[in-house]
Amino acid sequence: MSSAPDKLLPDMALIALGGNLPHPRFGPPRNTLEEALRRLEAAGCQMLARSRWYRSAPVPPSGQPDFVNGVALLRTALDPERLLALLHRVELDLGRARGERNAPRTVDLDLLAQGALVRSAEGPAPILPHPRMLERGFVLKPLCDIAADWRHPLSGRPAREHLAALDPEDAIEPCTE
Question: pLDDT at position 16, please?
């Protein structure tokens, strides 16, 4: 784990990783997420930093298993559209079936930010920065492992301040296994 700058260079991207179902080949979610990172590197993305893994309850609360979550900082020559397509391809290859929102899944890869790009819903996909990242402790806590001083391009505030503003009751703990 290393620290990222407060602003991302144009060839840098933050991605969130999560999953709560075992994969038939790779086993528990943590192993599947490690495989997702290997596949991103094999596709030409350079891993600059990554968080530890965290365990979090499903959002919204449900009877499904807890999630394993993390954040990675990548260097990539891909533009946001092609990077998002790569993330979706890795998800599909690892058994992600898109359907009901907030359903259990083997893997979920979200593009949080790329460079200093800001894109609204009216512009091309993906929306950047990710529209719900500031509401999610399971994104902000691992993000702060690697980039606590990274400034959200819309708010101008560092990630650590956004994390401090969340409900401290949210149970997001480091994975111990």
Answer: 98
Indicate whether this model's pTM tops 0.90. Answer: yes
Of 171, 163, 145, 158, the closest CA to residue 67 belongs to 171
Structural domain contains residue 93: yes
Below-70 pLDDT ranges, the chain:
1-5, 177
Domain annotation covers residue 159: yes
Q: Which of 108, 136, 145, 151 is catalytic?
A: 108
Residue 105 annotated in active site: yes
| pLDDT of amino acid 2 | 46
Do the domain assignments include residue 45?
Answer: yes
- Residue 149 is among the residues annotated as catalytic for this protein: no
Domain count, the chain: 1
Confirm whether 7 is domain-assigned: no
Q: How many helices (H) and strands (E) does the chain have?
A: 4, 6
- For residue 75, indicate whether it is catalytic: no
The domain spanning residue 80 has which CATH number? 3.30.70.560
At residue 123, φ and ψ (nearest 5 deg) are -95, -165
Q: How many CB atoms lie within 10 A of CB 23?
A: 19
Residues spanned by the domain of 40: 12-174
Among 39, 110, 145, 151, the one annotated catalytic = 110
Name the active-site residue from 105, 136, 145, 151: 105
Cα 143 from Cα 123, distance rounded (Å) = 26
Bridge partners, residue 108, by sequence: 18
